[in-house]
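Curious: why this fold?
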Amino acid sequence: MAKANTYITEETTKILDSTQLKTKFVSINKKSPVKALSSELLKSGFKPSTGNNDFYGGSERYVSSDGKKLNIDFSFQSYSKASSKDAGAIGVITLKASSGESETYNFSLIAPNGDFNKFTEHYADKNNKIVKTNSWSSRWYACAKSKCVSSCLGALTTCPKSSWTVFLACVAVRCGGCVAKCVACASCNCSFWCKWAAGCCRG
């Protein structure tokens, strides 16, 4: 993560409840990239989970002393597989700047046999082709391990691994604002329009 920027004058995080997120995913699941990712998970035997603990998301807002604003919206839904400990999820993260720039990253995560240290990540490209990567999740993990306090590091190993959303919610509670900053840092493409608030975790 880049050094703390002293000209950030406001930094807020809001977590949505399950009812809000379920409503939100009605729209999210209609988008072509998410449909493609979901279809790929279904082919692997996963099904979308719809319990109250199967959704996690919210938003972050940054304001600078010179009037710049950056909003980061993040949403996750867990996927499960019958008679298996494999944990799947779909994530959608959107960054939007007051200057007009925006970027959305749609991706899926799979933790084989519930092992969150051996996760795989895929994203949908411009043609909705599913491509294997390790970009967002690896940056988020690396940021949390290097920038957050020891109690947060413990959360990465001790938080429940029953699903991605349960795991992420637990880590967020244990790590507080640090994990939110790492979500922002992992999501920013290091361009000037988001780097001033989120930092740069790439490269």
